[in-house]
Protein: DNA uptake protein
Amino acid sequence: MRFPLLRSRLQIDPYYRFQTLAEVQQAAALGVRIDVNKAAVDDWLRLPGISIHQARTLVQLTQNGVQLYCLEDLAAVLDLSLQRLAPLAPILQFCYYDPASLSPQRLNPNTASIEQLQQLPGIDAALAHQITRERLAIGPYRHLADFQQRLDLPGGLINQLLPYLRF
Structure:
């Protein structure tokens, strides 16, 4: 059995944070992969040398529709040299996703325009205007429950909007 210590750590904790670049290489040999364009913050934090700030930036970019196609793209986003990222390459997967086939782009109601809000199911012109007026008058929506309460929205509409909103 190859790399028994790392294998047992991964069985105990599938989100084990690799401590060394050697562990990254071993994990890649065991079949562990991170899909760069679908990785969550916790996925990025598994990699040595990736900070919480960098992980959040990467996730925010990919959630906003930016796709990374190669190690060079990742290096550019993180403002790091290719040499620094090269040891991580074996565990990283750069998969292409057709934008039309991806799940709907999530919209932040704190920054969205009236036109963008009207593209969401269940939001007409009047509600889009109410959303923007409320955020300008009182401040940004803190979370989904705050959004629902301040706008007095029914639960059914919130369920309909769940896949489309992010805060």
